[in-house]
Amino acid sequence: MKSIFKKSTFLIVFLFFQTFILSAQGINLNYEKLDGQWEFYLEKNPRQVFDSVAANIKPDTMQNVPGFWNNDIIALKGQNKPETYGCYRKVIKDLKPQESYAILMKDAPGTSCAVYANQKLIFKNGDPFAMINKDDSVRHPSKIKPIYCRFSPDKNGEVELVILVSNYFYRKSGLWDSIYFGTQKNIFKLNTFILSFNTIIMGVLVFIGLLNIFQFLINIKRKEYLYLSIISFICALRISTASYATLAYLFPILIAEAKIKIEFLMLWAVPVCILRMITLIYPVKTDY
């Protein structure tokens, strides 16, 4: 019991210390969030969006970022389910033409997407075009991976961002996370730090899990070690998939369906293991 308490205390202190460093790092980096109103084109592909803008055709609506497709937006096309696609558009001005810029989304939109900068494809998650082309031959077109991509503005210091989102199966979709924007150097540092931070936390949790597995093998009667190791492994998986999906970097073939199932695993598994571990540490004594 004392060893479990020491490990838990160490983990809490370590997480607090890393969170403090992350906050301080975020303050020092010069970036902004592209939150707010974006133009939204429902069931239009990027080429149709570019043509609509050239013809001065207004977007279907304005959509908040971060945000989800809701019933009002889906109702624009007489639909009642979120399995569809659409494009978000925003123009950023007053940039330095000679500077390189980048965007970062820790939680990529589900379940597939593509990013365009000045009408050029610069990033793709899965195959968002299968839905547009009505191509059912693509077996796993869905991917959820953090979005990091860089680009350069035009000679006028402007960049037109268009993000295509295709939702194949999930109950909600859209640009559901903040979009961090800044110079390529600053966004690269931010992305690298978040990736390193998550990797360190995952490593600590896996180490604690392995340590408790060994403790359990040495003394099989102490099953609380087994449950603590299970909790550690599941929490590591949760961190590797929730928000910033670090696991997608380790396993590029990870599909969105698997990522979402892993992410919500701890919602039912961890409470059961915690309760079982507590009952083993503090058994209920009954006197007859």
What features would you highlight for this structure?
288 residues, alpha+beta, 6-stranded antiparallel beta sheet, 4-stranded antiparallel beta sheet, 9 helices
Based on CA inertia axes, which overall geometry fits?
Answer: elongated
Number of strands: 10
Strand content: 15-25%
Across the major sheet, the strand order is: 3-2-4-9-6-7
- The termini sit apart by 28 Å
Characterize the main sheet: 6 strands, antiparallel
Quaternary status of these chains? single chain
- Radius of gyration, in Å, reads 23 Å
Describe the structure.
This protein has 288 residues and is an alpha+beta fold. Helix content is 44%, strand content 20%. The chain contains nine helices and ten strands. A six-stranded antiparallel sheet has the order 3-2-4-9-6-7. A four-stranded antiparallel sheet has the order 1-10-5-8, with helices on one face. A hairpin with a 2-residue loop joins strand 6 and strand 7. Helix 1 packs antiparallel against helix 5, helix 5 packs antiparallel against helix 6 and helix 6 packs antiparallel against helix 9. The two termini are 28 Å apart.
